Amino acid sequence: xxxxxxxxxxxxxxxxxxxxxxxxxALENLGYxxxxxxxxxxxxxxxxxxxxxxxxxxxATEICQKLLSNPxxxxxxxxxxxxN
Amino acid sequence: xADLNVGVVVxxxxxxxxxTEYAVASFPGVRPVMLWHNxxxxxxxxxxxxxxxxxxxxxxxxxxxxxxxxxxxxxxxFAGQGRPxxxxxxxxxxxxxxxxLEGALIRNAGRKFICRQSTISVVNNxxxxxxxxxxxxVLRVPVAHGEGNYYASTETIDSLESxxxxxxxxxxxxxxxxxxxxxxGSLNSIAGIVNRQGNVLGLMPHPERASEERLGSGDGxxxxxxxxxxxxxx
Lengths: 84, 234
Fold this sequence. Notes:
The complex is a heterodimer of chains A (84) and B (234). Chain A has helices at 18-29, 53-68; strands at 2-11, 42-49, 74-83. By secondary structure, chain A is α+β, with helices and mostly antiparallel strands. In chain A, strands 2-1-3 form a three-stranded antiparallel β-sheet, with helices on one face. Chain B is of the alpha/beta class and 234 residues long. In chain B, 21% of the residues lie in helices and 25% in strands. In chain B, strands 2-1-3-4-11-10-9-6-7 form a nine-stranded mixed β-sheet, with helices on both faces. Chain B has a two-stranded antiparallel sheet with strand order 5-8. The longest helix of chain B has 11 residues, at 70-80. Chain B starts with a strand and ends with a helix. The interface between A and B is medium-sized, with 11 and 19 residues.
């Protein structure tokens, strides 16, 4: 079976996101004064071939911890969907 | 100086490897050995240098892909044996990604890539990399990075400070750690740290680009000299 992991990696809340801040300022200049915060993260789609969703979840967690995010500065979440 | 072999790791995207090779080769009796990222053998080197550049295009996070290249397994073992490893700029980023040094290097606070001469102070001169400097000495060493903003948890910063692991700090020419001198926003103005054992140093400034006066500054030279003298038992 194959699963698609939709992974989101975001900077930890304690870390100033300079890209997000610059984008928020640009939106402010465009007249969107109600946009009070922008934070930019990464979205990744990973196809995992495993027998069960539990196995796929284990692999997704491991790859997020080992490579796809850096726990010093980032958090991650993911959803798993079966693919045909 | 005694017969030494110093490995310079070359990742795809390294661009200070030859500058580092040049600086290392300028010491009599010291031979640079270029080590390709796909190799599994450190070829009997006495020290390893991870040079600056943009390994693997800085994809994902700076240094994150290089950390899993075959040669890094050997470098991590080598460091674990207490042998010297120096990471400069992107090499420092590889060292934090590989867990050989604590913390992370995030986007510069001012968002810009900064390429300029910087002034740093020697905070700890009792490491094997800084023995030939005076404590508190101010050095002129260039920087060139977009992600050099040192970040770590408060507990980590406290332990780095109390264990003397902060080796270099961005300061003004008088040695004051002002906000202005800390151009990339690093916590505690940290420019370089060593691991607890003292055998792994990472720093953002480029000592190899300040290895002789005609390059604009020769202040980086003694970093290499300190290490080579230590290895030669001098």
